[in-house]
Amino acid sequence: MFIDIAKINLKAGKGGDGAVAFRREKYEPAGGPYGGDGGNGGNIIIQGDEGIRTLMDFRYKRSYKAENGENGKTKKQFGKKGQDLILRVPVGTLVKDGDSGKVIVDIKEHNQSFIIAKGGKGGRGNAKFATPTRQAPRFAEPGTKGEERTVILELKLLADVGLIGFPNVGKSTILSILSEAKPKIANYHFTTLKPNLGVVRVDEEQSFVIADIPGLIEGAHQGVGLGHDFLRHVERTKILVHVLDASGIEGRNPIEDFYKINEELIQYNPKLKEKHQIIVANKMDLFQSKEWIDKVKEEFEPLGYEVFPLSAATMEGINRLKYGIWEVLKDIEIEYETFDEKADITFEESEKDAIIVRKENGIYIVEGSFIERLIYSTNFDNHDSLRYFQNTIRQRGVVDQLKELGIEENDTVLICGYEFEFFD
């Protein structure tokens, strides 16, 4: 089975909590704060691996979680960082945002890596909160949550040349002759259920990768047959070799076939219209082909297409095709276009620390991930910790925003589910 699309859920590791600890040593009864910081959470990293050919593993496992950071310890010892989780994917995989469908990163090379979900930061231990006026803080900071996101993995072949055409026109046979690939070949439609790759050697240090894109049919751009599964692989190729059955023995018109296939390509992605095409008039060994080959040349050569008469059965014309492909290919710069819209995603998201202050049904509400962490780290039974909490929300502009909303003395403020009475 050839799996080339998968949707997975990712959760980076949470940062470890800072520790509350005090120095307790002989002859030093009033030792200061001694709590260490928590370790950062593990990242989730996407990495290209040319040894992997499909996304099959991601079909059976959909959720991935990196290791959490270790909590801080006494003696100012930092917690251990959470281990990164590396997800290996085939070269040619697009990583898309699960909500928008836009591209986050395009994995084009072996060992190319990208942090797709960043681990949370470790919280500071109470040793970090000591000041000349607050010498024994009895509070620490919790670790932040790791990033969570849903992504779509989509594999698109990184082939230089794509063989396209209706089913049973001889694409797999041509691939097997041009390269060492051994695709399954038989005389019935949709023999090829996955794209086959082969390497074609032209000369010393001159070669190219060719892919047999499985047979397309009308309606492929709408997903008819296996349309979308195959059309995405066409986008990566630098040139297309359009194979026509010039014998017409199956009752089809090869000229009409050409236009039908190209209409499917353009309907799927209009930019494919710009891709260079070479036409192969296959099955020239059959007597019915003489008339059609002349008609194909008359139709397409004036439009700028080069037509290669060929017999995959007898291999006549195969070398001319090979060198013809190379002549076009060698002048095209290496650029594997995705044609997909890129996502505007930054992983140092400012929203993480955003504080939302609003009024709803006469109640003042303060919320946000920063405030959640602050509440979690505050020891409300400790005067220093409470003062730190009050100073922080004042410095972050929460009090000013509440005043703008019309808050008055003794009004209730709901902060992350906890009720507070407002005093200025």
UniProtKB/TrEMBL annotation:
Write out the annotated subcellular location.
Cytoplasm
Q: Can you give the residue ranges of the Obg domain?
A: 1-158
Q: Which gene encodes it?
A: obgE
Where the protein is mainly located, per its record? cytoplasm
The UniProt record gives the binding positions of Mg(2+) as S172, T192
Q: Which family does it belong to?
A: Belongs to the TRAFAC class OBG-HflX-like GTPase superfamily. OBG GTPase family.
Role, per record = An essential GTPase which binds GTP, GDP and possibly (p)ppGpp with moderate affinity, with high nucleotide exchange rates and a fairly low GTP hydrolysis rate. Plays a role in control of the cell cycle, stress response, ribosome biogenesis and in those bacteria that undergo differentiation, in morphogenesis control.
Q: Name one GO biological process term.
A: ribosome biogenesis
Q: Ranges for the OBG-type G domain?
A: 159-330
| Top-level taxon of the source organism | Bacteria
Indicate the enzyme's highest-level EC class. hydrolase
Gene Ontology terms, cellular component aspect? cytoplasm
Q: Which Gene3D superfamilies match?
A: GTP-binding protein OBG, C-terminal domain (3.30.300.350), GTP1/OBG domain (2.70.210.12), P-loop containing nucleotide triphosphate hydrolases (3.40.50.300)
Record organism? [Clostridium] ultunense Esp
What the entry lists under SUPFAM superfamilies is as follows:
Obg GTP-binding protein C-terminal domain, Obg GTP-binding protein N-terminal domain, P-loop containing nucleoside triphosphate hydrolases
What GO MF annotations does this protein's record show?
GTP binding; GTPase activity; magnesium ion binding
- Reported EC number(s) for this entry are 3.6.5.-
- List the cofactors: Mg(2+)
- Return the protein name: GTPase Obg
Subunit-structure text: Monomer.
Q: Which Pfam families match?
A: DUF1967 (PF09269), GTP1_OBG (PF01018), MMR_HSR1 (PF01926)
Residues that coordinate or bind GTP: 165-172, 190-194, 212-215, 282-285, 311-313
Q: Which CDD domains match?
A: Obg
Keywords, A to Z, come to: Cytoplasm, GTP-binding, Hydrolase, Magnesium, Metal-binding, Nucleotide-binding
All copies of the OCT domain together span 346-424
